[in-house]
Amino acid sequence: MSESEVSNHKVKEIEIRENKVYIQFYFDETLLSAEQDSLLFYLKDTDKCIPFSLTQISSLDGLGLYESVIDIEEHSKAFSRKTKWEIYVQIADKQKKRLLCSEKVTGLLYYYFEKENFVFFPSTTKRGELVFRTSEPLLFAAIDRATIRKDGSIFVAGYYDFPEWHTKEPSKVTGTLIMENDLDSHISRFSLDGTGKDNSNDRFSTYRRFETTIYLTEGLHSLKKVHYRFHLEISFQDEAKHKVLKCNQLAYLPADGEKNKQKRICTISKSKKRVKVRTKTPKRYLSISVSPYYYKQQLYENTSKLFRKWKNANKLLLVYKVLFKVVGYFPVKKNSIVFESFLGKQYSCNPRAIYEYIQANHSEFKLYWSVDPRYLKNFEGKNLDVVPRFSIKWLFIMARANFWVSNSRLPLWIPKPRHTTYLQTWHGTPLKKLAADMDEVHMPETNTKMYKSNFLYEARNWDYLISPNAYSSEIFKSAFQFKKKMIESGYPRNDILYKKHSKEELRQLKEKFAIPLDKKVLLYAPTWRDDQFYKKGKYKFDLELDLNKLKRELGEEYVVILRMHYLVAENFDLSPYKGFAFDYSNYEDIRELYLISDLLITDYSSVFFDYGNLKRPIIFFVYDIETYRDKLRGFYFDFEKKAPGPLAKTTDEVIECINSGNVTNQKFNDFYNKFCYLEDGNASARVVKEVFLQ
Questions:
Q1: Strand pairing report for 171-181 and 187-191
Q2: Angle at the Cα of 443 (from 442 to 445), degrees rounded to 5?
Q3: 597-633 confidence digits (pLDDT tens)
Q4: 3-state secondary structure of 279
Q5: Whole-angstrom Cα distance, residue 277 to residue 299?
Q6: Under 8 Å between Cβ of 525 and 563
Q7: CB 282: neighbour CB atoms within 10 A?
Q8: Strand 55-60 vs strand 485-488: parallel, antiparallel, or unpaired?
């Protein structure tokens, strides 16, 4: 079982036998009770729900394997009409989580309602979530074998089925594989050789097998890469009628022992080409690409790949660390400062504010930005001196730098030279518990003891720590075990909020973000959940805020901007909400989003401490507050009593708060005086004077 298949709220396998659907999935045992909780089928865009009981089968490293059995005939009235069902797992306090699909959810299994002439089958959304659909009979098909030959042709084999054939055998069945390229939409057709029904596979014994050879001699370009997508077309005779079935976007589901990625250098039309066959996720479509082959490029790619492998190996890391330490004994580069924000992903937050102040007022400093190479595009066009993180150049600059400025932790293995002053700016006023103050840690690839130990080990390197207020200072001392110089200055990133911004400047900002000038702006900026993740550093986020309802109730007056936490790795499909919902999660500077927003909707994110400086309304959408408060993190103060705005647990309650004008409360002044009293637009100047001008 691969690691990708064994992950939280992810399906292991689905089977349809006789009139029952068997769904097996993994889920965190601490969140789920098979006796009390259930699997939920929610009819899309409605509140209609059908619950099904759970049985725990086994346990693996804290993840339980659960099974739910759905009796299709028992619920035939619901399932035998054209519908779409979203699948959730109900957990404590009436909360629910979407189930994700795995590679074994093929979408080729189905149940046929013969009388109604509908099929009920599992499928996958663009975000990889499990759904069940009921529709008119479809052509179900997939490729399960593919072999790239030396001449560039590709042998493929697969299977197809049509539900109506179970009751009426077709005649004169013929098939065509249709290939279309992405350059000029050139279409090629390849006849299928049928080999009868597939009796070797119990799951697909009713399916008909086929095979054919794809020739890539047409539609190629001498210099450009070409991508191909595939469709299947089946013709047959039914009671003297000629019928044609089509399967758009043919799936590629390699059989056991087959690879889901292949590549080969081939000679096509007397020139060398690189041919790749792979599965395009999350819907697992067959994708073939052909690109020109260049020896130097191949050599470079092989060398880079080898270097990446070495770099990830412990031995190379040890060599790199030793080299870093040796260079750290070289003479210091006086007045050199290396900035880094959110692990090198953004040009933002407190490091950016300090950088811009120094750049404008102190030309004697040499300024660098440490950047994750995968995010170099975020730094283009800003006239910054960028250094790719963990490169050789970065090593020599970091190890000899006079100052480091970061708003999050640096890797543990980096030894801080004696001549380097490390300014940790951090990135928020704490509501949720941090580091040593956390009772339990639910993050991937760590445990509570290891997380705290690693955090405090790195925090020992900090020479200065910025605090936005006295409240934060006390918590930072406890959570980070920090005993060096605390700079209680306010946050440099909030300086911009105290500058006067004319109506014309705000209008230009709205135009920059393509926001309608006649609409008010709702900014939705939630935090991440420790226990919802794809892997370390990449967290899931289920959008519980119902955009359909928001648009229906508020769309005449408002638009909504989504701004996810930098650790959240989601790409939301907002096409149904065009002109109403905008996703600016990847936009680096949230401060500009603050300025154009009329109201903030958040949860436990520290953004509300910053937004409070504008003295604008805040709504707290806290649908999972019991779990977050009691299990995941815990709070430093009684959030429910002292929040500077109303708490809402449903989208309807959020809408009610906005429509009723109930978005401020008497606690706001107390909140502002406790958390924002140091902010005046000059925090950057105070920090620079304290750290860099001594």
A1: antiparallel
A2: 120
A3: 999 999 888 899 999 999 999 999 988 888 777 765 5
A4: strand
A5: 21
A6: yes
A7: 16
A8: unpaired
Report whether 635 contacts 433 (CB < 8 A): yes
DSSP state of 635: B
Tokens of 326: 């040796």
Residue 334 is which amino acid? K
| Long-range Cβ contacts of 118-125 (<8 Å, 24+ apart) | 118/80, 118/81, 118/82, 119/163, 120/72, 120/79, 120/80, 122/14, 122/21, 124/282, 124/283, 124/284, 125/282
Rounded to whole angstroms, how far apart are CA atoms 60 and 10?
A: 14
Confidence of residue 436 (pLDDT cuts 50, 70, 90): confident
Tokens of 145: 């074998």
Residues 6+ apart with CB under 8 A from 303: none
Q: Cα–Cα distance between 399 and 394 in angstroms, integer?
A: 8
Cα distance between residue 506 and residue 596, in whole Å: 6
Once rounded to an integer, what is the mean pLDDT over residues 58-73? 86
Distance (Å, rounded) from C-alpha 228 to C-alpha 275? 11
Pairing of strands 485-488, 520-524: unpaired
| Closest C-alpha among 258, 32, 305 to residue 145 | 258
210 phi, psi to nearest 5 deg: -150, 165
| pLDDT band for position 464 (cuts 50, 70, 90) | very high
Q: What is 415-477 written as a DSSP string?
A: PPPTT-EEEE--S---SB--GGG-S----TT--HHHHHHHHHHHHTT-SEEEESSHHHHHHHH
Residue 533: CB atoms within 10 Å: 22
Q: Rounded distance, CA 189 to CA 215, Å? A: 10
What is d(CA 552, CA 101) in angstroms, rounded to the nearest whole number? 30
Please write the tens of the pLDDT for every residue from 293-310. Answer: 877 666 766 666 666 666
On the CB side of 235, CA atoms within 13 Å amount to 10
Phi and psi at 502, nearest 5°, equal -70, 165
- The pair of three-digit structure tokens given for residue 562, joined into one six-digit string: 């989504």
Among 619, 632, 611, 416, residue whose Cα is nearest residue 532: 632
Q: Structure tokens of 154?
A: 């590709």
Question: Is the model's pLDDT at 315 over the cut of 70?
Answer: no
Do 341 and 379 meet the contact criterion of CB atoms below 8 Å apart?
Answer: no
State whether residue 602 is helix, strand or coil: strand
Q: Is 398 within 8 Å of 324 (Cβ atoms)?
A: yes
**Chain centroid to CA 380: how far?**
23
Largest CA distance in the chain: 93
Q: What whole-number distance in Å separates Cα of residue 608 and Cα of residue 617?
A: 10
Structure tokens at 283: 């819907």
CB environment 659-677: b (16+ within 10 A), e (fewer)? eeeebeeeebeebeebbbe
| Tokens linked to 643 | 């929040």
Three-state SS at 73: helix
As beta bridge partners, residue 231 has: 178
- The total of other beta-carbon atoms located within 10 Å of residue 162's CB is 23
Report how far residue 675's alpha carbon sits from residue 612's, in angstroms, rounded to the nearest whole number. Answer: 9
Q: Rounded mean pLDDT of 187-211?
A: 74
139 compared with 248, residue with greater pLDDT: 139
Write down the residue that tokens 């059989």 correspond to.
Answer: 255
